[in-house]
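Appendix C reproduces, verbatim, an entry submitted by the partner laboratory led by Prof. M.T., so that reviewers can inspect both the input and the predicted structure.
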Amino acid sequence: MLGLTAAAALPIKGSANESLWSDSGQGGGRDASEESMRLQQLTDGWRFHRGDVEGAETHGFVDAGWRLIDVPHDWSIEDLPGVQGDGRDAVWTEAAYPLHTGPFDRYASEGEGATGWTVGGVGWYRKTFTRPLNTAHGKVEVRFEGVYMNCKVWINGVLLGAHPYGYTPFSFDLTSHLRDGANVLAVRVNNAGKNSRWYSGSGIYRKVWLSNAGDLRIPENGIYVTTPEISRDVAVVHVEVKVESGLPTDTAAKVRVRFKDNDGAVAAESESGLTFNAGAVAKVTSPVQIKNPHLWSTSDPHLYSVEVLVESGSTTVDSKSIHFGFRKLELDASQGLRINGESIKLRGGCVHHDNGPLGAAAIPRAEERRVEILKANGFNAIRTSHNPPSIDFLDACDRLGMLVIDEAFDCWETGKNPDDYHLYFKDWWQRDLEAMILRDRNHPSIILWSIGNEIPERAEPDGLEIGKALAQHAHDLDPTRKVTAAICGPWDHPKKTWQDMQPAFNYLDVGGYNYESAEYEKDHAKFPDRIMVGTESVPAQALQYWNSVEKNTWVIGDFVWTAIDYLGESGLGHVSIAKTPTNLFSTTSYPWFNAYCGDIDLIGNKKPQSYFRDVVWRRSPLEMAIQRPVPTDQTEKISAWGWSDELRSWTWPGFEGKPLNVRVYTRGDRVKLFLNNTELGAKNLTEKDGLRAEFTVNYDPGELRAVAFDGDKEIGRVDFKTAGKAHKIVLTADRERLRASRDDLSYIMAQVVDEAGRLVPTSVLPVTFSIEGVGEIAAVGNANPKDLASLKQQERDTFHGVCVAIVRPRGEAGSITMRAASKGLQSGQLNLQVSAEAEQRRFRQ
């Protein structure tokens, strides 16, 4: 143990242990550390009521009839009361769909398609806990990582304060309001109105903590690590530590800092003296030198633990630990981005904050899994559009080697919706920017701060002053990183030109370009020192954007919109078959409920554009897809953010003898196509073909093969075989070993396969899940962007032959048995093992 004694905060009942995903290769491998009882999770045993209630803030209010839940919690993803029907019809009609299905309501949703037809409103949370033991001048705080949105917090009927922004952490001092025995926290969340352009979720959707500190304590975000000098030979490190005194008299203390490697060995340590005035905050900077540091990079994301101990006499009165990675970040127009002296281009993706079928609930394993999937599919950078992410998401980026643009706001003083953050920006921007940067500045994964996205007033006189103030404040809080923002063309100012947007770049260190790659070289000729990054691009132009990145040193990367499908912005990636174009941005998008523009689908599997991007990024020499057949009298209509309706399949029953469009993607210069070992033809590719060769092939079941060549050398081949009739369900888990923690999850894919074990992509079948043992089904889902069925029931249709059930441990060791059944098919079964948690915790400030 780190020597916590009676002089420090005393432990309260309960455990602060959290799953670290580090055993036997499961997950990302968080470091373990010794347990401190100073910071406790306040996540279980909350009472919740959906709707407004008079008097619910009072201590004596009777909440026994309210639901008992754990947080993180998102009420907007839950089934609405009185749901009728399951929403499986392929085409929406008034008769086919009731007023609402699952969590979706076409008429009650104030955000409409922008928020995926889900419903916000007002909700109440109440938590009863026993007053923790503490010293005479100690401090007890409640810390919220994220509540969406407009929340008010009471303790024992006393209003502590309000917090409007849904994406930044905040805390309140409880000390003077605590009673002996039972204490009651009450939280009212008001997610009413039209306040988001994407799915926000509703409620206490991130974690809550109880901080119980003694007379001398390190305050929240009280540790700041910088590296004034760093090389592979030596790292000169400054560890700035703030210590707060609750004592009524002047006093002195000692601050000890230790850097530990993965094996627990002390790499360096230092000791500094500190003197306090009564009730004051003192600060000390401890210099540390580490020889031959193990540097952090995307390919080798090595992390050290930094332990800080505050000692009074011979007693340790407070201690905290954080992770830290040593890396040298360099950035300029002439050489681009370098990490540890090595050039790197950002293969980036924009990511909204929801976890698909789980909604906005920031369960740590779900946050980690998104980063794992993107890393496995070639991404090395994420833009957290358009808000600060959860700390669990950033922890995963640190562990897995994912670079991050950490973004603060989607609007400033001019709103994009009548009830959005613009109502609070003037009074709150400074506090919210500080909340993001002070929390996040020790993360090695973060390379840039973004102060805004497509801000309406970005180049107006008022906006220029706001941008300067934001950028300056970001530099004051963290001088080690540069500042960017996503600047778009003048589509919201029809009478202006791209040249009129140029003043917005004056307050930025790095120019963020949304969909403006055509301006890169022209702007470089005018502004040769400007560093540029494509902060948003569309999948269909992946090659053009990436060519600009590879060609120009001053363009450091490209971030596609988006890396992964998300709830809301319904139909942004809409594809339709019609004689005339459809309106993709109105309520006619119903029943579409997700954007469907991601490289990765809503349940975590690759979509066709991701395979094309593998070729663009040189991760694969050859890929192939077949366009879904289009009636001869109609045309495929693809939105600007969409992708053709393609499948990686040669299973097209009912189309025998009819022509299909086969698309082959390669960087080779020649492609041959074979059907059932008969060569159908060959095509030579030049630069103007954009890595694509297209063939028209009359469908005949069997085996379709494409072979790519570079000159006479074969560089790759891909085969599709026709699947037979649906025969059985096969279950596959991303992780079969779990920890006995509510933070852990297993994603179990149910696939419909034929007798040979081949996926049957034409299968749209209802799968019923059942579970036994020490777990529960947290959610079900598929990748269908217009399947409005419940995400909380235990049945789900397959889409392209696949659906998912997400299993969550109940918190005890044992086993879990999952079964999946569908009429006429052999059932699937899978066993999971759940082990007791080790005495471990995540590092939190």
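Confidence is low (pLDDT under 50) at residues 1-36, 83-98, 839-843. Additional entries are available on request from the coordinating office.
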